[in-house]
Design a protein that fits this description.
The chain is built from seven helices and eight strands, in the order H-H-H-H-E-H-E-E-H-E-E-H-E-E-E. The chain has helices spanning 7-33, 38-79, 94-151, 156-187, 199-217, 235-251, 308-318, and strands at residues 195-198, 220-225, 229-233, 258-265, 269-276, 322-328, 332-340, 344-346. Helix 1 (7-33) packs antiparallel against helix 2 (38-79), helix 4 runs parallel beside helix 7 (308-318) and helix 6 (235-251) packs antiparallel against helix 7 (308-318).
C-alpha cells in the first residue's frame, strides 16, 4: 500500500497493532487466571490501550502539523520574494510527493522569471540604445529645419511643409523622450527626490501649462480641492504624470467641454481625480489603456503614440499609488489616482 510508504505512518500503524495485540494477550491472560475479576481488568486494559493509542495519534498528528506549518512558512517566504525557499521532502509518502512537486513548480517559476527578466532587459536596453541613437540625428534635423524656415519666408509652399516637418520632428522627439523615461523606470534607475509639495500649487501649474491650448480649443480646466493639502512626492515626476493625464483628457474632448481636476483627503487615502465630459473610452479599450503603444480603433486622436498613460502609471506606482479609469462611452472619463494616507500631510486643520 502506498499509504504505508511513509515510515512515520507505518510506525503509527505498527504501534496501534502492538497495543491491540498487547491488549488481546492481556485480556486472554486475565480471563484465564482471574475469571471473577476479569471484566474489571479487561476494562482497565481497554482504557489503557485507548490512552496509548490516543497518545500515539496525538504525537503523530502534532508532528504532521509542524511539518505542514513549516511547509506553509516556506511557501510564504517564496511568495514574499525568497527564490531559494524550499520545503524539505526527504521522506517517502504522498505528502512528500506533494512537497516535491511544489518545489519543482518553484524551480520552474524561477526559470521562467529569469527568462522573462533577460528578455525584458534586452528589450529595455534595445529601446534605450535606439532612443539615444535617435537623439543626435533629431538634433541635426531640428537645426536643418530651422535653417529652412529662415530661407522659406518668400516661398509659401516650402514654408508650409517646413512647418509640417517641424510638427513631425516634435512628435518623434516626444516619443524618444518618453521611451527613455519608461526604460529608466523599467531599469529601476529612477530615484524619487520626494518633498512636501502643495497639491493646489501643483495643479495651478498644470492649469497654466494647458491654459493657452484650452483657450484656443474652447475648453475649460476647472480645479476643485482643499488648498491646505500637501503631498510627499517628487514634484517634477508627479507633474509629468499629471501632464500626461490632463493632455489625454484634452485630446478626447471637444469645443465647449471641460476638464476637472479634483483632490481630496479621506480617512484612508489621498485621491486625485481628472474628469472630463468628452468622448469617453470604449468598453473594449478600457482594459488596455495603460498598455504601451496601445491605440484604440475608436479614438479620434491621430497624434497620440500610446505612451503617455503607461508613463503616468509607472510614475504613480513609483510613488506607492495606483491609477484606475472609469468611463462611459460618449459621456466622458474619470482617472482616479489613489495614495496611502501616510504619504499626505495636511498643513492645517
Amino acid at each position: 500500500m502506498k499509504i504505508l510508504a511513509n515510515r512515520k505512518i507505518k510506525a503509527l500503524f505498527y504501534k496501534i497493532l502492538l497495543y491491540l495485540l498487547g491488549f488481546s494477550v492481556f485480556s486472554v491472560t486475565v480471563i484465564g487466571l482471574l475469571p471473577r475479576q476479569a471484566a474489571v481488568y479487561v476494562w482497565l486494559g481497554a482504557l489503557g490501550m485507548c490512552i496509548l493509542i490516543l497518545l500515539a495519534c496525538y504525537a503523530y498528528f502534532k508532528e504532521q502539523n509542524d511539518i505542514m506549518e513549516n511547509a506553509i512558512g516556506q511557501i510564504r517566504e517564496y511568495i514574499s520574494g525568497s527564490k531559494d525557499a524550499r520545503i524539505e521532502c526527504y521522506e517517502e509518502g504522498e505528502l512528500y510527493r506533494l512537497f516535491h512537486e511544489v518545489n519543482s513548480l518553484a524551480s520552474i517559476l524561477n526559470a521562467h522569471i529569469e527568462s522573462e527578466g533577460r528578455k525584458k532587459e534586452f528589450l529595455r536596453n534595445t529601446i534605450s540604445d535606439i532612443s539615444h541613437q535617435l537623439k543626435t540625428p533629431l538634433a541635426a534635423l531640428n537645426i536643418y529645419n530651422g535653417i529652412l524656415q529662415g530661407e522659406a519666408e518668400a516661398l509659401p509652399t516650402v514654408k508650409e511643409f517646413v512647418g509640417l516637418s517641424e510638427q513631425e520632428l516634435e512628435r518623434i522627439e516626444t516619443l524618444v523622450q518618453k521611451l527613455l523615461k519608461i526604460s529608466k523606470f523599467d531599469a529601476g534607475t529612477i530615484v524619487m527626490e520626494k518633498a512636501s509639495e502643495n497639491i493646489s500649487d501643483m495643479m495651478e501649474c498644470i492649469k497654466k501649462r494647458f491654459s493657452f491650448r484650452a483657450g484656443q480649443e474652447g475648453k475649460e480646466i476647472i480645479l476643485l480641492g482643499d488648498e491646505a493639502i500637501d503631498f510627499n512626492c517628487d514634484r517634477n515626476w508627479m507633474m509629468e504624470a499629471m501632464v500626461n493625464i490632463v493632455k489625454n483628457a484634452l485630446d478626447h474632448t471637444e469645443e465647449g467641454d471641460s476638464v476637472w481636476i479634483e483632490w481630496k483627503l479621506s480617512a484612508s487615502a489621498l485621491q486625485i481625480a481628472v474628469k472630463d465630459n468628452g468622448t469617453g473610452i470604449h468598453p473594449e479599450d478600457l482594459y488596455y489603456i495603460f498598455k504601451r503603444f496601445y491605440r484604440s480603433r475608436y479614438s479620434k486622436d491621430t497624434q497620440g503614440i500610446g505612451l503617455g498613460l503607461p508613463l503616468a502609471k509607472s510614475i504613480i506606482e513609483a510613488h506607492g499609488g495606483s491609477i484606475s479609469a472609469d468611463s462611459e462611452w460618449g459621456s466622458g472619463t474619470t482617472f482616479y489616482l489613489n495614495f496611502l494616507l501616510f504619504k499626505t500631510i495636511p498643513t492645517k486643520l
